[in-house]
């Protein structure tokens, strides 16, 4: 759970923030409430004003949209990645052809064997070309699913949070992706990538509320306080 004053992450059930000293009435996490009274927590969500207004034009218009950079940047990165790897592969194969021609003409099959060295060196960049092509297709499918999916809202309990760090090294910085696992009224759980990082910081495990989803992305979350 988070401190209602400063936003610091605190253990569940604590009523005093060790960082800013704020105190508040104890609110039992929605996961505990759900376990003690069946699915009543979802009934509480659906009785809230936020649930009634979830599809209003004002609320829908305030939902975050996919940033243009997020949809274009991965494709641009992998195009450059494929281009560099393809150029290296081309140069290695060209060297293999030249070495093979010279080797066979002067030393026969044994001399031509030197062409195998640059040929083997070309295998790795060729693999990078295949990998880059696969990643572009995967990203394109994800973006297509997002564009063709409606925005839907669910009564939800936040069942988990996680991050995924990738990249980094040398002169480049690492990037982080954020994920939320939602538990729905029928007991299903599903993980969604967070559209905007601030959403990840605004929710805690056990929070109950309304999760706005589009495709495989969590757009926003309206927290509903459910007391025992």
Residues in helix, %:
40-55%
Structural class: alpha+beta
What string gives the helices and strands in order?
A: HHHHHHHEEEHEE
Ends distance: 16 Å
- Tell me the number of strands: 5
The CATH topology of the largest domain is given as: OB fold (Dihydrolipoamide Acetyltransferase, E2P)
Q: Explain this structure to me?
A:
- The model has no long low-confidence stretch (mean pLDDT 80).
- A five-stranded mixed barrel has the order 1-2-3-5-4.
- The protein has helices at 30-36, 40-46, 49-52, 57-61, 68-112, 116-121, 123-147, 197-202; strands spanning 151-169, 172-183, 189-194, 208-214, 217-224.
- It is built from eight helices and five strands, in the order αααααααβββαββ.
- The chain is elongated and about 85 Å long.
- The longest helix is centred in the middle third of the chain and has 45 residues, at 68-112.
- With 228 residues, the protein is of the alpha+beta class.
- It is 46% helix and 23% strand.
